[in-house]
Amino acid sequence: MSTLRPKDSDAVLSALRKVRNDTGLPTVFAGEADGETARLTRFIGVRTDSMQGLAVAKGRGLGGHVMASGRPATVRDYEDCSNITRDYAVAVEREGLRAIISVPVMVSGVARTILYGSARVATQLGDQVTKTFSSVAAELASEFQVRDEVDRRLRMADLAAAEHCGGLESTDREQLRVLHGELRAIAAELGDPALRERLLAAGSALAGVGREVGDPSSVRTQSVLSPREIDVLAQVALGCSNAEVGARLSLSPETIKAYLRNIGTKLGTRSRMESVARARLLGVLP
């Protein structure tokens, strides 16, 4: 993540202030998410610390429900609701919350943040409340997308500065990288093993374009990295975030993180950028 990027938590807190002001709900809070878990860290109007740091899992409770569905949801009375699981009832009831709305902030199909609003009495939160929360969530999603794109371009600039293009023009090398990443993403979705192997072989051939013939280092490295690890690294090389890589390869962001940790261990690298640069130097990536 770029050090120039403003803190996402500040944007979340600003969004909470807006929905509280526009809806009049006394209590609002949020959890920054990775698509699988949302950890509640931002609160306005709470009376206890019962929910501080609470980890809400996908599919569990009201927040987990909207994380899975990608759509807003409300409950009239949390103490008497049979439509959601009761995993977090103790913490919520200690705070005295009754009517609750939960809205996901979706970026590239993944919940990045969950926004909540609540009243301390059982009541039907109307369409206007849902509309206000959804509007603020959409604005926050757009803000995150802009920040992600800035980060992606900065990563691409850093990678370009960290490597040699092996005699090819930078535009030609970039076209090779995009094609290489697309081939591996398509291959990952195929059910035909023979066709998948043909696409992977084509991608490997692209990785060697413009490099010296007969260099055994790339062969050794490809045998160290699994095909799936190369798939992940090929998408990261295009500047994709973990969520974007996961969406392309039908994997969760947490799984992508695990792959990147393994790749770093195998290549002796300490960051995404260093792993990509090392793989390019060894001829695994174009």
From TrEMBL:
The keyword Transcription regulation applies. GO terms for molecular function: DNA binding. GO terms for biological process: regulation of DNA-templated transcription. The keyword Transmembrane helix does not apply. Keywords: DNA-binding, Transcription, Transcription regulation. Residues 218-283 form the HTH luxR-type domain. This is Helix-turn-helix transcriptional regulator. It comes from Dietzia psychralcaliphila. The lineage of its organism: Bacteria, Bacillati, Actinomycetota, Actinomycetes, Mycobacteriales.
